[in-house]
Design a protein that fits this description.
Elements (H helix, E strand, L loop, with lengths): L1 H19 L1 H4 L15 H11 L12 H17 L2 E2 L7 E11 L4 E4 L2 E3 L6 E2 L5 E9 L5 H4 L8 E5 L7 H21 L4 E5 L2 H10 L1 H5 L1 E3 L14 E4 L4 H4 L5 E6 L1 E15 L10 E7 L4 E6 L2 E4 L2 H20 L5 E7 L7 H8 L8 E7 L9 E5 L9 H15 L2 E3 L17 H6 L4 E5 L18 H20 L15
Parallel strand pairs: 6-7, 7-8, 8-10, 13-16, 13-17, 17-20, 18-19
Antiparallel strand pairs: 1-12, 2-9, 2-12, 3-4, 3-11, 5-10, 6-11, 12-16, 14-15, 18-20
Protein name: M28 family peptidase
Keywords: Signal
GO molecular function: metalloexopeptidase activity
């Protein structure tokens, strides 16, 4: 822990240096009607390869790598001429995140097989458990198969089955199905549930289980920090199917959990507005700098760089900062790079609870989340349509710029409440929307490299990132300069 304390002390000292150099950087400001020309693809590409390169090791939330990347971003903002707007006159707002994980001393045995969580078996939730029960295999768990077996007081093993939605949504279908069915079996008397991967689920067992190794994260005292005693749900690879069927096996599971606190940080900067009255209101440009860090190697690559998620949003937000530094709007522009988004929107939740400007002064949030992949002319606005829309004024401003300047073909399916990905609820605009701040997110949606080591800088369409950065900027420029602030829809209410 002393490494974190020393590093944070260094950050605080460094932030004072960044603050004092702001005034000198302001001397070379150029004025123009707007500063769209300040958003250059060459800058975006340079910054992307720096932030999403291997040097920052994937910027995992709560790690030294995230903090180092945050210092780099703050240094770029200072050099552009932005003012610090974090705590104590710095670019930084530090907060703690709490991690709860399964201890290395936990034991899992099925028959003669001794299994290790995080290697050849995964426990879906870090909860205290102690089970010693006979194992019964129920095939795919169909009603006919279940009718032949008494599961009360036993550990129930079954092979995953069922065809879910398209590939990008299959992961959520998989985890949702396992969790729901496990709860049903436990309610019927099972003491534990063991899932064995079928062929389709096996690829996700190999690619997506690193998150289960990490455990759960939350702000201190949050729901995910609470530890309960509950029946364990275990996930096994497809190779376990042959031996899991053997009769008269015993399931023995002793699980303990432990918690740690880690520092994370929001980076906050501003460009003051020019109007004596309106400068006290803020248009907030939102993004997040963290990703998944260093994890289990896939095809020999252990750095999960997060070039699209979300270095693309960061470099676009930096470019927008350059434009506002060159030509401020009437209202002030506020730039927040949220930490620990991948751990559960923790940075944005913290900032909404403890903003560095009065919350009522934030008139709109324009969030950039994964904006560099898929077809060159495709994009999506999250919060465009009810029930997710909370400001028709803000949405119409973005649509007007798209029609006149950006010319993207807008996907509307991913913003619907019945979309299987629930994409609206998975980025940093959400805590602001819940706090009744007009908020939208700009995104180019998921792709097969999402949360894999293949999300590399050389796969990003930097021309597309540049176009979206200009779209966000012009929308924010409109909102920052119109006489009246954008209005909140009076009947706004999310479905969950």
């Amino acid at each position: 822990m002393h490494r974190y304390v020393s590093f944070i002390t260094s950050l605080l000292l460094y932030s004072l240096l960044l603050t004092t150099s702001y005034a000198q950087s302001q001397r070379n400001v150029t004025k123009s009607p707007n500063a769209l020309s300040a958003i250059q693809e060459s800058d975006i590409k340079r910054d992307l390869f720096a932030l999403a390169g291997d040097h920052f090791r994937g910027r995992e939330g709560g790690s030294l790598d995230e903090l180092k990347a945050s210092v780099w971003i703050a240094d770029q903002l200072r050099a552009m001429g932005l003012q610090p707007a974090g705590d104590d006159g710095t670019f930084f707002q530090f907060f703690h995140i709490q991690r709860t994980r399964i201890t290395e001393t936990s034991r899992l045995n099925i028959g003669t097989h001794q299994l290790t969580h995080g290697q050849d078996a995964f426990i879906l939730a870090p909860a205290i458990a102690s089970v010693d029960a006979p194992l019964v295999f129920v095939g795919k768990g169909t009603p006919e198969e279940m009718s032949k077996v008494d599961i009360k007081g036993k550990a129930v093993a079954l092979e995953f089955s069922g065809t879910g939605p398209a590939e990008l949504s299959y992961r959520r279908f998989l985890f949702g199905t396992m969790t729901r069915r496990a709860a049903e079996l436990v309610k019927a008397g099972a003491l534990a549930v063991i899932w064995v991967s079928n062929a389709e689920a096996q690829s996700y067992f190999e690619r997506w289980t690193t998150g289960l190794e990490r455990g759960r994260y939350d702000l201190p005292g949050g729901a995910n920090t609470r530890v309960f005693s509950q029946a364990p749900t275990v996930w096994l690879p497809a190779s376990a199917l042959d031996w899991i069927k053997q009769p008269n096996q015993q399931f023995t599971n002793v699980v303990n959990v432990e918690s740690f606190n880690y520092p994370s940080v929001n980076i906050v900067a501003k460009v003051p507005g020019t109007d004596p009255t309106l400068k006290n209101e803020y248009v907030l440009f939102s993004t997040h700098q963290d990703h998944d860090g260093v994890r289990r190697a896939v095809a020999g690559d252990s750095i999960w760089n997060g070039a699209d998620d979300n270095a693309s949003g960061c470099v676009a937000t930096m470019a927008i900062g350059r434009a506002f530094a060159k030509q401020p709007g009437k209202r002030s522009a506020l730039f927040v790079f949220h930490g620990a988004e991948e751990r559960g929107l923790l940075g944005s939740r913290y900032y909404v609870d403890k903003p560095t400007v009065p919350k009522e002064s934030i008139i709109a949030v324009l969030n950039a989340e994964m904006i560099g992949r898929n077809a060159p002319d495709s994009a999506c606005i999250l919060g465009q349509q009810p029930p997710h829309r909370n400001s028709a004024d803000l949405v119409n401003a973005a649509l007007a710029v798209n029609q006149s300047e950006a010319h993207f073909k807008l996907d509307t399916l991913w913003d619907k409440p019945d979309h299987p990905e629930g994409w609206y609820f998975r980025s940093d605009h959400l805590p602001y929307a819940r706090a009744n701040v007009p908020a939208i997110a700009f995104t180019t949606l998921l792709h097969p490299d999402y949360h894999t080591p293949k999300d590399e800088p050389d796969r990003i369409n930097t021309a597309k990132v540049t176009r979206i950065a200009k779209w966000i900027y012009l929308t924010g420029w409109d909102v920052a300069n119109r006489p009246q602030r954008v209005r909140l829809d009076p009947d706004f209410k999310l479905e969950r």
